[in-house]
């Protein structure tokens, strides 16, 4: 309750903290933004009634009449009156307390914060749960991922896979280019070597 009223007071009764846009220049959204919201609000209010037969059929009363029967399983026969009044009483008490500490006299909380900075930082940083999560899970898994990326992906898969095949093809292409001299006698010599190899193969077989 205190958190909810703190949020309400801070939002609608607190100081203006937007440093980029002065409060004098704030304005309502233009009509081009309000019109879709109006259309959506009508849909949110009436769409369930209009399309109820499409989703649950024409027996909607039978569908809904048993929707709260589960409460019979958890109901109590005799609940003390103080139990029923406890929650609304605490909510009502929290209203002036929240207003006093977060609007009327914020110096009390500021002084408490200054004298209890370790506790304040501990709560402000959400018990350091995120930092512990990063330390225990995120950072080790990130290091493992980097290890497999560097050693496995780059040094093994790429070296002997796509990059290795590319280097072999480039090497063979560079060697093959050396035969393309443009001289007829070089081509004649290559043809002679090939023909000799073919005749030798035929003679042997």
Overall description:
By secondary structure, the protein is mainly alpha-helical. It is elongated, with a radius of gyration of 39 Å. It contains 11 helices and no strands. The longest helix has 32 residues, at 129-160. It has 2 domains: 2-124, no CATH class; 134-204, no CATH class.
Write the layout of secondary structure elements.
Elements: H1 2-13, H2 31-50, H3 52-56, H4 60-65, H5 71-74, H6 81-104, H7 107-115, H8 117-124, H9 129-160, H10 162-177, H11 184-204
Helix pairs in contact: 1-6, 9-10
Give the gist of this structure.
The protein is mostly helical. The protein is 77% helix and 0% strand.
For the structure shown, list the relevant keywords.
205 residues; mainly alpha; 2 domains; 77% helix; elongated
Structurally, the number of domains stands at 2
Number of strands: 0
> In angstroms, what is the radius of gyration?
39 Å
State the helicity in percent bands. over 70%
State the secondary-structure class. mainly alpha
* Oligomeric state, counting identical vs distinct chains: single chain
Following the backbone from N to C, one meets helices and strands in this order, namely HHHHHHHHHHH
Query: How many distinct helices?
Result: 11
| Amount of beta strand | under 5%
Largest sheet: none
Instruction: State the low-pLDDT regions, or none.
Output: none
Question: In whole angstroms, how far apart are the ends?
Answer: 99 Å
Mean pLDDT: 84
The shape, in one word, is: elongated
């Amino acid at each position: 309750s205190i958190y909810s009223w703190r949020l309400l007071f801070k939002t609608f009764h607190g100081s203006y903290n937007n440093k980029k846009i002065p409060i004098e220049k704030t304005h309502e959204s233009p009509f081009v933004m309000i019109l879709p919201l109006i259309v959506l609000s009508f849909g949110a209010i009436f769409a369930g009634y209009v399309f109820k037969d499409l989703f649950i059929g024409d027996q909607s009363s039978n569908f809904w009449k048993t929707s709260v029967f589960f409460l019979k399983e958890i109901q109590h026969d005799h609940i003390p009156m103080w139990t029923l009044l406890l929650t609304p009483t605490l909510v009502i008490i929290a209203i002036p307390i929240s207003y006093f500490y977060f609007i009327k006299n914020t110096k009390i909380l500021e002084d408490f914060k200054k004298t209890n900075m370790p506790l304040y930082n501990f709560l402000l940083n959400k018990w350091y749960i995120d930092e512990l999560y990063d330390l225990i899970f995120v950072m080790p898994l990130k290091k493992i991922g980097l290890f497999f990326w560097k050693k496995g992906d780059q040094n093994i898969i790429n070296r002997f896979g796509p990059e290795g095949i590319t280097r072999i093809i480039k090497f063979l292409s560079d060697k093959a280019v050396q035969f393309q001299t443009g001289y007829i006698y070089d081509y004649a010599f290559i043809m002679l070597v090939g023909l000799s190899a073919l005749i030798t193969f035929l003679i042997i077989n």
